[in-house]
Amino acid sequence: MAGDAIVPGKPDESLIIELISGDEPAMPQNQEPLSDEEVKLFRRWILEGALDDTPAEVDDMGEENYPTYVVPPLVTALAYSPDGSTLAVSGFREILLYDTTNFELKARLVGKAHRIESLMYTADGKILGMAGGSPAQFGEVQLWDTATNTLIKAMRSSYDTIYGLSFSPDASRVAFGCSDKTVRVLSVEDEKELIKFDNHSDWVFGTIFSVDGSHFVSCGRDTALKLVEVNTGSFVDDVNSSNKGYGEINTIARHPTADQVLSGGEDRIPRLYKIFREIRRDVGNTDFNLIQAYEAQSGSIEGVAFTADGTQFAIGCSGGEARIYNVADGKRVASMQSDAVGVFAVSFHPDGTQLATGGFDGKVRIFDTASGKLLNAFMSVPIEPAGSEDVTLVVSDQQRYDTIGALGNPYVSTPNIDSLVGDGVAFTHAYCQSPICTPSRASFLTGMYPTATHANRNGNDFFPEAYPLVTRTLADIGYDCGLIGKLHLASAYRRVEPRANDGYRYWQYSHAPRDDWEQGHDYADWVRTKGYILGELNQNPEGVPAELHQTTWCAEKTIEFIREARDCPWLASVNIYDPHPPFNPPQTHREQFNPAEMPEPLFRNSDLEQQTRLQAVDFQSKVRTPDELDIRSPILPQTPHRETDAIGARDAKTLKAAYYAMIQLIDEQLGRILETLEETGQRENTVIIFTSDHGETLGDHGLIQKGCRFYEGLVRVPLIFSWQGQFVNGLKSDALVELVDKAPTLLELAGLTPPDGMHGRSLLPILRGEADTNHHRDFVRCEYYDAVDLRDHSFATMYRNERYKLVVYHGHAEGELYDLIEDPDEFDNLWHTPAKQDIKLDLLKQSFDASMFAMDIGPRRVGPM
Prior knowledge:
Blueprint (H helix, E strand, L loop, with lengths): L14 H6 L15 H12 L30 E3 L5 E5 L1 E8 L4 E18 L5 E8 L3 E8 L4 E8 L4 E6 L5 E6 L4 E5 L5 E5 L6 E6 L5 E6 L4 E5 L5 E4 L10 E6 L5 E6 L5 E4 L15 E4 L7 E6 L5 E6 L3 E6 L5 E6 L5 E6 L5 E6 L3 E6 L5 E6 L10 E7 L18 H8 L1 E8 L5 H10 L3 H4 L16 H7 L3 E6 L18 E6 L12 H8 L4 H4 L12 H13 L7 E6 L11 H4 L15 H8 L33 H33 L6 E7 L19 H4 E2 L1 E4 L8 E8 L3 H8 L14 H4 L11 E7 L9 E7 L2 E7 L4 E5 L17 H17 L12
Parallel strand pairs: 28-32, 28-33, 29-36, 30-31, 30-32
Antiparallel strand pairs: 1-2, 2-3, 3-4, 4-5, 5-6, 6-7, 8-9, 9-10, 10-11, 12-13, 13-14, 14-15, 16-17, 17-18, 18-19, 20-21, 21-22, 22-23, 24-25, 25-26, 26-27, 29-34, 29-35, 33-35, 37-38, 38-39, 39-40
Helix pairs in contact: 9-12
Keywords: Hydrolase, Metal-binding, WD repeat
Cofactor: Ca(2+)
Organism: Geodia barretti (Barrett's horny sponge)
């Protein structure tokens, strides 16, 4: 027999199914064959995507050869030491010990059992016990000396992984549950099996001793809490009613000083029971030991724990939430969103001030028990990324798609961006997911549409973290991430933007090149080191000199980050403010662009009527004819043009000249970054991505800046990927792509699988020449939700396929419909055209379907109901 133990989605190709099936199955060894129902359960588990997360080197592990991880395993068990100095965490084939003063890893206890299912310290803290095993091979209890971190003994029992370890009060006995439907009790001294209790009818998941150690309680899939006498191994009583349809019981914990047991499981309701019956069992009084049933949880209960004084308890559930309650009155004290898809383990610090949680995503999180505030979060195991490539992600602000020489713009020189096009892939039809900063940035950093990120406006109080940032995910697997420039996931108005859980170790922050922040503005601090005050520089009619410009500072700090010595892959997020308003290039660069030679904006007189109909829909500037654009600023002096030019046209052309001058400065500083990569020998191993968060109307259709419109110049942006020797060279792809596609692409480059439900779709197949280079999506979407907080705010969505663009202004009678083949400049709005109503209705349905499919589907499904 050979092959992978588990092939996700393919039970017939999975070795484990072959081993447990047939007339004479090879597994379990020396035991009765599994029942048909149990085999069906295995098949269903694999069919629904179970993964074999076994590291390749499992047979050669020890103190000198620890397990290595590309992705973290589930955290199935946590335990604080009685003195609070150590937090024990489950890994693969090892227990990881963290120092609770700084949560640095201080020891790794490696054994033979592949899975760690339960951890518990003895009351005196001298022994750390583990229950686990290797599926379909053996169950194992490990006892570790906490003073020396050495294995005292490993005791094997049963033919499969074991669960729910508990010590007797004097630590002379250890109990655990088994998948063969038994509870076993072993002698710690001589390893003798003292009890084999077989009164359960399904797997047993938990055990706990009474206060005096004379009895134990067990729980499992059969919905029962069984009370057993230790001296005789005899069944005494059912602590609960197992015939009320509560569902399987996954976990139990005993009150620290009282013979009371807290249970939780499939029906989501935690229940507190007396262990010993104090009244006669009468007909109809089936839950006679029940003290209290508490609030229902958001998912199946997977972990429970008491504080050391017994006044509070914690619950972890499959809904991704942990909660803390008062035992006496059931009042909820704190709620903590710990993991989007499941919390499997919870443990209180002995002083009760902190709660540790672990679960599906492999992270350990530490919360303040009084407020529920997240204090710390770290990966449960050291991660070694599968991908070793570095990443330089350059994001300009408000740069249109049509501003790059190699992609057809004859007015601006961009030799360095052009070089990326030459040795990479340029997506000529890439669309942002919102024509405004925060929602667009939150979207492409999470791979999710704005409606799902909950960060769909500028000016929000904080980043909601409904989904993790891709930089956080990469940092968790060992990438050294650095931010240079703008982030803008939350408001920076009259304050420094509060940081999200972003994963950046290197932090050089500048929301905008203004002197609006007394502290925390690294660019302004850098300018001061040069002997200048940023606020004074910004009053210079000739603009900020190139050597002091924020774009130059971004390059300086990126080069500093690239040159750092490190032994891990890195990612640099370079977020340049330009070519964002106020359109203030250095004088040296502005002089290189003659406004008289700049192209006219896209404008017809019919735009006035069109924008007047849409005037109820918010925008940052009023619609004007070209001779009324009124672009005047001390930094943008009016420049003479041909006498035949209208005043407004002069202004529009001056704006465009300044805009192109800023892009040229961006290109020059990008060149310095590329030179540094070459000089340091890192260019061939670095993926370079150049893009922008959204575009700029630049006078088109009588508008400047951005807002609730979806013209190509505003929502279509540059998107270029370059990796020498790895990606296709010189490809200009016309495929419809979205900026959300960057996140899954980065994850796959790092060797990770994008999570289910991510809206973005990896571009790697196109980048590597493995797919149709001119097709990626059938349509693209863009969203706008009261984004700039104007008086007449609006909600709107854009749906664009290969031919048509549909814009719906929700709550307004007006909309937009363009045939982009016949009308690529979007002058002829077909919304009210009688001959196009069938097309409009069909597009409305398609847009509605796309919006529904983009909704946040919530936590991972864990059961049929």
